[in-house]
Write a structure and sequence with these properties.
This is Solute-binding protein family 3/N-terminal domain-containing protein. By secondary structure, this protein is α/β, with parallel strands linked by helices. The chain has two domains: about 5-145 and about 250-285, Periplasmic binding protein-like II (D-Maltodextrin-Binding Protein, domain 2, 3-Layer(aba) Sandwich), CATH 3.40.190.10; about 145-240, 3-Layer(aba) Sandwich (D-Maltodextrin-Binding Protein, domain 2). About 30% of the residues lie in helices and about 25% in strands. The chain has helices spanning about 5-10, 25-30, 75-85, 105-115, 175-185, 205-210, 220-225, 260-275, 280-285, and strands at about 15-20, 40, 60-65, 90-95, 120-130, 135-140, 145, 145-150, 165-170, 195-200, 215-220, 235-240, 250-255. The strands form two sheets. Strands 1, 2, 3, 4, 5, 6, 7 and 13 form an eight-stranded mixed β-sheet that branches. It has a five-stranded mixed β-sheet with strand order 10-9-11-8-12. Helix 3 (about 75-85) runs antiparallel to helix 9 (about 280-285).
Length: about 300
């Protein structure tokens, strides 16, 4: 799939396909903008006494911002380091440690401040939904993160193997939740599972272990983060969501609109890493489902 934006966005950042950062997944899902009209995101106003923008002029150094609450933070860090290596640049990381923003305006204000004061690009953005912002441009995706079914019962190897009438957790307002509800609507009542809505910030491991749900439809990086990178060590298996379908979420980075040259260099590095299998190796070592995708 690779970078999924239009040619217009590639030239000037006028239109991009981007969803709120994976680090702020709860905010993104609560806003639930998927499938709606193009959302306009104006450059936020930040009082000059707390924000002074700088343009980075460092020929041998590249700084990435990471969000401490992101379920992909360690993957972002490792891929960011490999990107720097490919470009023969020294890489630094600035970890933004604030808590999850509860308002959309807070989120974009934080993005602006990080890009203006701390880094060249913010990693961990989920790309896919339509947002118009003339002050940002996205990179191509470096990771396509799938939705999975988390189960504790060793007899289940997919959603379709869970008997009808049993409760199945579903991450609220997500693409997999939408697909699940649509599929349930097509089934006769006696063949349906019971949908158990689960907010993205609620750990599902206990729900699975105590039998409140038979399985959990969830974003792979999120369950990976909730199980401290070792779902099997906590008795959780990640299996396919068949028979429903939900596209994987492409993850990339965001930078200011004037950094077109940097964006092009990052895209070339991401493509090379993907073609050489380095990104897939990183994902395999971390035990994360998904891939670098089609570049």
């Amino acid at each position: 799939m690779g970078w999924s934006g239009s040619e217009e966005s590639r030239q000037g950042g006028l239109r991009m396909t981007v969803r709120f950062g994976s680090c702020l997944l709860g905010l993104a899902l609560s806003l639930n903008i998927g499938g709606q009209a193009l959302a306009q995101v104006a450059m936020p106003y930040v009082p000059p006494e707390i924000y002074q923008e700088r343009r980075w002029i460092r020929g041998s150094e590249l700084t990435f911002c990471l969000w401490s609450v992101s379920p992909t933070i360690e993957i972002d860090r490792r891929i960011g380091q490999e990107i720097g290596n490919a470009l023969l640049l020294n890489v630094k990381f600035y970890e933004y440690t604030n808590t999850v923003a509860h308002r959309e305006d807070d989120f974009w204000e934080a993005v602006l401040i990080q890009l203006g004061q701390h880094c060249d690009a913010v990693m961990g953005f989920t790309l896919g939904e339509q947002i118009s912002a003339d002050w940002l441009i996205p990179s191509r995706a470096y990771y396509e993160a799938p939705y999975v079914l988390a189960v504790a019962n060793p007899e289940y190897d997919s959603l379709g193997e869970i008997p009808a009438g049993l409760p199945v957790g579903s991450m609220m307002s997500s693409a997999v939740d939408q697909a699940f509800m649509e599929y349930l609507g097509l089934l006769p009542k006696e063949q349906r599972w019971i949908r158990f809505p689960v907010p993205s910030y609620v750990p599902v491991v206990n729900y699975l272990k105590d039998g409140r749900i038979e399985g959990a439809l969830i974003w792979a990086p999120l369950i990976h983060s909730q199980t401290e990178g070792d779902p099997e060590g906590q008795g959780i298996r990640l299996v396919p969501i068949d028979p429903i379908r939900a596209d994987p979420t492409p993850i990339g980075m965001m930078m200011r609109e004037y950094n077109v040259f940097l964006r092009d260099q990052l895209d070339q590095a991401i493509r090379s890493l993907a073609e050489d299998g380095i990104i897939d190796e990183i994902l395999a070592e971390a035990g994360l489902p998904g891939s670098a995708g089609n570049q």
